[in-house]
Amino acid sequence: MIFFSAPVASASATSDEYGWNFTVIDTDGNAGGYCSVAFSPVTHNPVISYTEIVSKDLRVAWYDGSQWNINRDIAKNASYNDISFNSTGYPAIVFYSDTPEITLRLTGAKNFEWESSQNWDESIINPKVGTTKPSIVYNNSDIPFVSYFNSANKISYAYSINEIWQNFEISSSSGGSKYSSIALNPLTGYPAIVYLYPQSDQKIYYREYDGENWKSDKISYNSSNIGFGCSLAFNSDGYPGVSYVKNTGDLYYAWHNGISWNYILVDDVGSDSKERPYPYTSLDYNNSDCPGISYYDRRDGTNGDLKFATCNFEKVGDPSAWEIENVFFEADSGLYNDFGFDPETDLPYIAFYREDGENLNYGSLYFAMKGKTPEPDFNAIVYPVSSNMTVSFSDMTYSQTFAENYLWNFGDNSSYSGKNPPAHKYPCAGIYTVSLNVSNRFGESYCEKEITVPTFSNISVNKTSGTAPLHVMFSDKSIGVPDTWNLSFGDGSFYNTSDIFSDDGMGITHVYENPGNYTVSLSTEKNGIFNETVYEKFIVAEAYVNETGGNGNEDDGDGEDETGGNGNEDDSSENSNNNFKSSGSYYGNAPNKLYNVRCSPYLSSACSSNLKKGDIFSFYINTGFMRKFSAAFGEDVSNVMFEVSKVDFARDLFKEPLGPVYGYGAVHMSGAPESSVVALSASFEVSKNWLSDVSMTENDVTFLMYVLENKTWVELPVEFEGCDDEFCSYTVRIPKISYYAVSARKNTKHMPKNTMDLKDVLI
């Protein structure tokens, strides 16, 4: 028979070393008679209908992607049969039943769970027929068409609409035959039938429906007794082809070229010394319109062999161009066979019967597949993520048919089963041997590669710019568990260590004494694998300018506008709180006194000049959890800058767990001594969604300060201010400038009211 799944382009093979592989599907009794194979349009897996020759039980075997399964109870008293699928994946089998009388029947699946015997419905197509092989195909409207010979030995066809069968005679001539084959023309969608009339002119006929009538055509006019075991198929251009056997034991292939029929001798298949039907042939076209034929070669007169012939479509008329393979030659194999090209892989698959004893008392259903084992290959991409070195693996295996099993070994005592594993995290840098084992229905193959997982050199700093001398804290953020670090500060100074990259648990501080742009680099090593990251012009140390001038317009040589935007305007009010949001030159509270303020662009910053004892300097923040920061000064200061930044900490810095952490932050002060600040306070917010996620309430929020001297976190009392739809607000009194964290745990301490009135604590 033939298959009508839409053609699917197949990958080009990397070599021509294909081999036939075999699976024994059913050995129960004398299984495998009158076998027929089709491919599901949904799963693209093969399904076989066949009979147990002695009991005449109709059976179905199907491949589920990993193994064969059998249903041995589809119907009773069956012999000849043929299987086909409709477009939604429902199979149907047409068969002859000889008990209690000879009838032509169809059993069809009711739903997608057709593997169960209870999910098939049986109907009678014609109650009076001869015992011959029927053939079935679905048209584009999912109407089944069946060809057969009726009780008057006339070629007939039937179709079903609304489960009611209509039967028609195609020809008025009688004669009877055991062979007919039906197929659909892919261009017109109409059926065509090929059949043999051995009792009339003993020639093979072809009839095709044109929408109104059946047109008749003889395939061969000069020969007789031809057409045994015939099989019909169409190529993609809508031209029919037929395989058949002549009574002299010759296998022929006939094709129509759009004008006339042509035919050629393909192979001598001999004569059969046993009294049984002529063997079947099976024809199909691959995606390149090359014909393939499976057939039974019985030349030795005792045991026959299953064979397969194929030819390039441009050379079908050249006998020497046909390639003939002996597929299976053990025992007597292939009397019943059916073949098709896999719609996904374009590889030939054959279902066939192997006779294992005399008098047909024992046999087995076999399945032959032509293909090769997979050629495993994979690609690996290494990238850092979080605190790990992660490798993304992607499968690049070549396989003519779907690979069914994948087993990865990542070289670190871990493995994964599946086509594309999730990104794999390695514990540290190193060289790992990764292997991939892949199998398909033809066998399994193995490949391995060495992959290098390096360290990833990374740093963080508390600031990237400021006025020289500039104090910058460097913290290590490297990934891959390095053994050594080599940090170049860019000013001729280096820091080399084989311990953790830190001198106090927080980082190391380096002072840039002179103005300039400094390129920083960090090199790390693990297991002999080195990695270096270079930060071009990473640190900018600026010159501090403090000029005096008569009117503020004097050029100090740095190319900047020293007027600060207000020209010669006197800004001399007592106790003024001058908050400047950007670098520049500004007038202070004394005539002709110019203050040069340098504000860092690092996250959030604020700067001020001319602060008096008792002044409170406050600014608002739009990064992290802090929203407002206030400082009260106990002495006069001429210039001050505060910087607030978000910070990431490793949890191993803590001596005790903090519980869930909402966020970390740091406040840095420059331009004035920290001793000039006598009181600090902050306002901060916490997301209500976060509190819900960690199963805490607004009363469980804590504020913690990191004490560098003993490397511990100290909890500070907070005051709850209230909540809106998204956030809860708090205030906190801070004893000193440091690193901070917002956390949550039960039984927190709370501070008294009016904590923002910092003047109350001034001396």
Give a quick rundown of the structure.
Residues 548-582 are annotated as: Disordered. This protein is mostly beta strands.
**Looking at the structure, what is the overall shape?**
elongated
Through-space gap between termini: 104 Å
Mean pLDDT: 79
Q: Total domains, how many?
A: 4
Outline the structure in words:
The structure is a single chain. With 763 residues, the chain is an all-beta fold. It folds into 4 domains: 20-371, Neuraminidase, CATH 2.120.10.10; 378-453, Immunoglobulin-like (Sandwich), CATH 2.60.40.10; 459-541, Immunoglobulin-like, CATH 2.60.40.10; 600-761, Chondroitinase Ac, Chain A, domain 3 (Sandwich). 1% of the residues lie in helices and 51% in strands. It has 1 helix and 57 strands. The strands form 14 sheets. It has a 7-stranded antiparallel beta sheet with strand order 44-47-50-51-57-53-54, with no helix packed on it. A 5-stranded mixed beta sheet has the order 37-43-42-39-40, with no helix packed on it. Strand 18 (226-234) and strand 19 (240-246) form a beta hairpin. The longest helix has 6 residues, at 688-693. The model is unreliable at 1-16, 546-603 and 747-763 (pLDDT under 50). Residues 374-453, 455-523 form the PKD domain. Residues 553-573 have a biased composition (Acidic residues). Pfam families: PKD_4. InterPro entries: Ig-like_fold (IPR013783), PGF_pre_PGF (IPR026453), PKD/Chitinase_dom (IPR022409), PKD_dom (IPR000601), PKD_dom_sf (IPR035986). Residues 548-582 are annotated as: Disordered.
